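I'll show a record.
***
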Amino acid sequence: MFTIFICFVAGIGAGLGTGFAGMSAAAVISPMLITFLHIEPYEAVGIALASDVLASAVSAYTYRKNKNLDVKNGLVMMAAVLCFTLVGSWASSLVPSTTMGGFSVWMTLLLGIKFIVKPVMTTKETMSAVSPRKRVAQSILSGILIGSICGFVGAGGGMMMLLILTSVLGYELKTAVGTSVFIMAFTALTGAVSHFAIGGMPDFWILLLCVLSTLLWARIAARFANKASPIVLNRATGVVLAVLGAAILAVNYLS
């Protein structure tokens, strides 16, 4: 029963983070499984990435159905992210003493506070004023930056994308989250397959429980997010991120 409870709670946090903010499930599920169920870190990350795939995909579908997803530029950014994540990982291997393990956790907390204090109120009309050529160039450069940092640090992809899409590229919040989860579905699939190919299949029941719980709560969060007004969505996203960031910090402290 304790295992079921931990997987369900981890799925709630991961699903809400994914559906509201395009956050990677790995930021929530991994520390929960490692701390409370004593699962090996590599296996825990694989389970988290696998949970991310369906949760991000169903969230992306919901955002797409509500016309809150930029597929064209999302594909361009995704290609750059995937390529330069490899570059960042290679660079990181050359500097073994550099570590930023708490990077994504602090970013989650601070980004949550940012959405509460300073909401993103950009409109789709403002977004459409940017020329297609300029948007493609911005997507490539942003993908290079996100991939390089995430490959070097080892975490923070979803939060980095949300921050850059809203603050640098000027996306309105719903389109930013929709585009972020669209990209995360593919990056998580790549990560999960590689983890399982290298480390073998994890515990089936823990994997299933985490996947189902994350999928359920991501679906609920995405449906709510697409119906909410911009100010309500900003506040809800901010609260979810701030609470998750604080909770993950507490879990890491316990471990």
